[in-house]
Amino acid sequence: MNTIKLISHVAAAILLGAAVGPAAAQLSGGSLTITRTTIDTGGSRMTGGRFVLTASIGQHDAAEPLSSGRISNQPGFWGSFPSIEPCSPADLAEPYGTVDIADVVRFLQLFGASDPASDVAAPMGVYDIADVVAFLQLFGAGCP
Q1: Which stretches does DSSP call E strand in 17-141?
Q2: CA distances from residue 117 to 47, 62, 106 in whole angstroms, order as listed
């Protein structure tokens, strides 16, 4: 019984090779032309409070920005991203480079969530009125 299975498998392989062989021979040789290429990297600048992360990751080809909720994948080049830095530890929200009411609202959101970006006064790791007072002092000082 095993001999019959082996013979049938060998016969199937021979028939397959005979059928595919001529087609495979036609595919070999000649010049190779690449009609479309891409170099895929994704660059982004991510900020959270006083922290900024600029990164690259591999991405698929995309003609339009892809987004879902608060996360967005913007295809393009590194040079297309603005380079405005937060001007102060109180500059927590866009537009960066100036302190305004958006920064106060963002601080309150971060403080309510016990986010480390809102922990601007000692003792570190404790979210208390000292952080609120320190933020207001930083906010009052504005941008240099």
Answers
A1: 42-48, 51-57, 66-68, 71-73
A2: 11, 33, 10
Print burial letters for 82-108: b (CB count within 10 Å at least 16), e (below 16): eeeebebbbbbbeebeebeeebbebbe
Tens of pLDDT along 34-45?
Answer: 666 555 555 666
Q: E strand or H helix at 129, and its extent?
A: helix 129-141
- The SS3 call for residue 53 is strand
**95 close to 105: Cβ distance less than 8 angstroms:** no
Segment 55-87, tens digit of pLDDT:
665 555 555 666 666 666 665 555 545 567 889
- Give me the residue spans of the domains in the chain: 42-80, 84-144
Taking alpha carbons only, the member of 47, 45, 141 closest to residue 88 is: 141
Cis peptide bond N-terminal to 95, omega within 30: yes
Distant-in-sequence, close-in-space partners of 84: CB < 8 Å, separation ≥ 6: 95, 96, 97
Evaluate whether 133 touches 121 at the Cβ level (below 8 Å).
yes
